[in-house]
Design the sequence.
């Protein structure tokens, strides 16, 4: 049960960070998805912290690497709590 809670909390943290980073860069979901090689639907789900099956988002490492590259940060920075405006 702890693992499921941790995955859900991490998915929410990733979603918040993705929204914040995208907004700070003035980009649309469509633009970030395209730059990362994701479908717009996949990216939207990541920003909502859910998977296609309805559970918490659990992206592949390659997806996290692509998103980090788009935002010019490390994968670790995608997954850390940060103050949000």
Sequence:
């Amino acid at each position: 049960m702890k693992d499921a809670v941790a995955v859900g909390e991490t998915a929410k943290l990733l979603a918040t960070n993705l929204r914040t980073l995208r907004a700070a860069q003035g980009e649309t979901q469509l633009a970030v998805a395209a730059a990362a090689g994701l479908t717009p639907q996949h990216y939207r789900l990541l920003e909502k912290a859910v998977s296609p099956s309805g559970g918490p988002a659990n992206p592949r490492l390659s997806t996290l690497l692509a998103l980090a590259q788009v935002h010019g940060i490390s994968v670790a920075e995608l997954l850390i709590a940060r103050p949000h405006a």
